[in-house]
Design brief:
ten-stranded mixed beta sheet; globular; Thrombin, subunit H; 15% helix; 293 residues
């Protein structure tokens, strides 16, 4: 029995850079995912967005993403520019410096023309906000999945790695929903997981009298694991001699509420350009030369 819908797996993307390793393979630095925003006035028309972390793109001018082809034999890498020729960003970043999310509106024509395999999380029907999570009992102890590409583990066929975890702390986020809360999950995540989606696990069973959630939903975006620091101090001098950093197993997640805010910002940015009759400033995916494997 499938727990994670296939379309959710196909919505996850590996994010890479223009550099290659000693074996000639592209270097992959993070994860992301595609969301779909249906127009309020016309639900048959949608716009699409790549979601990832601010710290994943950093100061990069372009990123690369890998998609499988419908033949199941080849993969294709596509590059997407992050700035126009004037140096203006082609993305929107959440205005709060502590909210590690960006959204990039893009046109999927290249994916469609190449018959690449892709999909998207619909921003309203495939998600749970903090309020919806609280109402349906998605809280401490609820199982979740972290999807992404840790440790450069992107091979000839794009297939995201799934890590099982549980929500460790979220009640404070429920109380601070209108601010910029995070919640914590207990899951072993590593560099490369950043920017990946966090998916709730269906829980049809619950304690009598408590709510339950019986569907998989996007509930947030992974930002980073919390490091544990072990400090070695000299008994003679009292000075720090060594600091060892380890993965605590706790991971920071920004809720869907913040993802929706960034998507709306990016939609408005492009809508203002459209209404001003300027050339559209959102990127198309461009197939990279030599991208098939």
């Amino acid at each position: 029995m499938a727990i994670i819908p296939e379309q959710f797996m196909n919505a996850v993307v590996a994010i890479g850079i223009e550099k290659f390793d000693a074996d000639g393979k592209r270097i992959w630095i993070g994860s992301g995912f595609i969301v779909e925003r249906k127009e309020l006035q016309n639900s048959n028309f949608s716009t699409y967005y790549i979601i990832t972390n601010k710290h994943v793109i950093g100061n990069l001018r372009q990123i690369f993403m890998r998609f499988n082809s419908l033949s199941g034999t080849f993969v294709k890498d596509y590059n997407i520019n992050l700035y126009d020729n004037m140096g203006h960003p082609l993305f929107s970043a959440h205005p709060n410096q502590n909210t590690d999310i960006i959204a990039i509106q893009f046109t999927p024509q290249a994916l469609i023309s190449d018959m690449s395999i892709w999909n998207a999380f619909e921003i309203n029907t495939h998600t749970l906000t903090l309020e919806q999570m609280q109402r349906t009992g998605v809280e401490e102890g609820s199982l979740v999945y972290a999807l992404g590409f840790p440790m450069n583990l992107v091979y000839e066929i794009k297939s995201p790695i799934c890590r099982l975890g549980c929500i460790s702390r979220i009640r404070d986020a429920f109380l601070l929903a209108q601010n910029t809360p995070i919640f914590l999950i207990d899951a072993q995540t590593f560099p490369g997981n950043s920017g990946g989606p966090i998916i709730s696990r269906p829980e049809p069973l619950s304690i009598m009298g408590t709510p339950s959630n019986n569907s998989s939903n996007l509930i947030g975006i992974l930002s980073a694991y919390l490091p544990y620091k072990d400090v070695l101090i000299s008994q003679q001098t009292g000075e720090v001699q060594m600091v060892q950093t380890e993965n605590s197993g706790l991971t920071v997640v920004h809720p869907v509420d913040r993802i929706k805010e960034v998507v709306e910002m990016e939609w408005r940015r492009n809508e203002q350009i459209r209404l001003s009759q300027q050339p559209q400033k959102f990127p198309s995916l461009i197939k990279s030369e030599g991208a098939t494997v």
